[in-house]
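Form 7-S
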Amino acid sequence: MAETLSSLFESIKENRIKPSKSKGVTVDEHYYYSKKIVSYLKDFNVSGITFLEIRCGNCILAMNSETQLGGEVIGLDKWTEMPTDTEVKEYLIVSKSGVSMVEALEPFPFRDSSFDVIYALLVFYTMKREQRELVLSEVRRTLRSNGYFVLADVYTMRKVRNEVGLKEVLYAQDQGIYVSIFRKP
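Output:
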């Protein structure tokens, strides 16, 4: 039976975790897509390594990765709107998550080849072209060889998929979200 998704009002009322304004989706939807992404990564036998979620908002994908895949997980964002960094830290404590939080945007404050997996869930549609180009160059710089970049967004973003500059190894669509997984040679 397919999982049902709640309304934004129900989601806010039933969950301590507030939805991030920039994502524009309910907490339930964020959980749903986070589970999908983790299942795709499991298909590639990805576990126990280093993960980075860029523009992570409320860190649901980062927390789900940490729980399901293990390894070191870092959430990167600039918590200037709801939820605040303090609220996100509370969620992480409540969930007993081992996710580390770094408050920064681009350029990423990490060394070259720092991560095995980098993911962006529902963030590229909010970016202007110049910003996307900077983020993608940072993804290529900080992703290790044979690492994966997961791009999940609200439309196919064919142009963005071509701009990634890595080999696409999976493309899927689920309830209006398009997921592309790329591998760095």
